[in-house]
Amino acid sequence: MSVQAKNIVILISGTGSNMAAIVRAAERGQWARRHHAQVAAVISNKADAAGLGFAKEHGIATVVVDHKAFDTREAFDTALAADIDRHQPSLVVLSGFMRILTPGFVAHYADRLINIHPSLLPAFTGLNTHQRAIDAGCRFAGCTVHRVTSELDHGEYLDQAVVPVLPNDTAATLAARVLTQEHLIYPRAVERLIAG
Ligand code: GRF
């Protein structure tokens, strides 16, 4: 790929199913040819993140930056940024990346950093979104792709999808229903940004 290629770097901590959805969309949609864009690297803070195997199988560079090896959040974020910046990314995609990022890190990637959150923001920032939606009696739940700012789960909303909450839902069944929508809207939002 040419030097002007728009590189996407994806950060994961676990399964990486959203990452896989983006990689598959890039392959199927020929983002390299149509947008001069590629998923250049997948970086995990956990060595045993299942998604690393998928990335390798798809010929994508993988890196592990173990947060436990660093004394402070700042030191971890500095090391993480060094690995990300090696790819000169146009877009950094948080995909189930379970670390709170420092304001310095977020500022460094201003306008290039996005996340997907499994709720209809601004409802239910933080963790356990599905159980909290059920407990609150919500009839609808969903997911939100948003730009990342230093305030957790805030930042401009780029896309949302809605699913019903069904009478016998558990957090697990609702999470699965929401995840199918995440896999549709996250690749779509990434493509819109890199194509624009
Ligand atoms: C997704 O529900 C995402 O919204 C949340 O963490 C989960 C990650 O799933 N931030 P995966 O690793 O992409 O499969």
From TrEMBL:
Domain of life: Bacteria
PANTHER family in alphabetical order: PHOSPHORIBOSYLGLYCINAMIDE FORMYLTRANSFERASE
Reaction it catalyzes: N(1)-(5-phospho-beta-D-ribosyl)glycinamide + (6R)-10-formyltetrahydrofolate = N(2)-formyl-N(1)-(5-phospho-beta-D-ribosyl)glycinamide + (6S)-5,6,7,8-tetrahydrofolate + H(+)
Protein name in the entry: Phosphoribosylglycinamide formyltransferase
The keyword Membrane appears for this protein: no
UniProt cross-references to Pfam families, sorted A to Z: Formyl_trans_N
The protein's enzyme class: transferase
Active-site annotation: H117 (proton donor)
Residues given in the record as (6R)-10-formyltetrahydrofolate binding sites: R73, M98, R99, I100, L101, N115
Transmembrane portions of the chain: none
Binding site for N(1)-(5-phospho-beta-D-ribosyl)glycinamide: G16, S17, N18
